[in-house]
Structures are given as C-alpha cells and as structure tokens.
Specification:
Blueprint (H helix, E strand, L loop, with lengths): L2 H5 L2 H25 L5 H9 L2 H25 L6 E2 L8 E2 L8 H6 L4 H5 L8
Antiparallel strand pairs: 1-2
Helix pairs in contact: 2-4
C-alpha cells in the first residue's frame, strides 16, 4: 500500500478505481467517436449519420461503453463486486458468475444488451 492509499478512505479508493477503470476509458471512447476516430461498424455508422442521429449514437454508445467497462473491470478483478438480488439475500460474486465474461455477455450480438434493452443501441 502506498502512503497516499493509506490516507484514503475505502470509499475514496473505490471511487479512484471506478473512475480509472470505468469513467475515464468510457469517456475517451465517446470522445474518440465524436472526433471520428472510432473504427469498425459504429465508426462507419457515425460517418453516415446526420446530427440528430449522431447525438443519439453518442448517448447510447457512452452508456454502453460505461457498462462494458464496469463489467470488464469486474471480469478482470480490478473491481471485486458482489450482487445481492434481494434484501437479506446471499451476495453472489459477479466475476465468474457467467459461462462467458460479463462484458462479452453484455456487448456481444444476441447478448444481454440485445436481449433486454428497450432502447436503441448501435453495433460495436
């Protein structure tokens, strides 16, 4: 533990790791999309979209990227989180709780995003 970690509360250490693992990478991806630097299908869709569609894409992609980054951090034990389905229930370790990695389950074609969303989303 570094001296600076010793001076931080658990909440502050969690916040720093959450921002490092989730927020900042997701924001960078969103800024790259807006700057036209995003490769693949979403980059091509961005280039072909009008202004209104680009706004919808930017919002959707930013949310998806943040969720993906959170799940990726859980998959790689950068954030060790548990989920409790109901009050008083037993906590379940999220990492390893799926046949595949959580991030892949979320973002893949036919995955959780495709299955459970009610809102539009765009290909990666």
């Amino acid at each position: 533990m570094t001296e600076s970690e010793g001076e931080r509360t658990t909440g502050e250490m969690f916040a720093a790791e959450l921002i490092d693992q989730v927020r900042d990478p997701a924001l960078k991806e969103g800024l790259d999309l807006v700057a036209g630097k995003y490769p693949g299908a979403i980059g091509a869709a961005w280039a072909a979209a009008d202004e209104a569609e680009r706004l919808r894409m930017a919002v959707s992609n930013s949310v998806d990227e943040a969720i993906f980054r959170l799940l990726h951090a859980i998959d790689n034990a950068a954030l060790e989180l548990r989920w409790v389905r109901s009050p008083g229930g037993e906590p379940v370790e999220l990492a390893g709780s799926s046949d595949f990695d959580l991030a892949g389950e979320y973002i893949s074609e036919g995955g959780w995003r495709d299955t459970y969303t009610q809102e539009p989303h765009y290909p990666y």
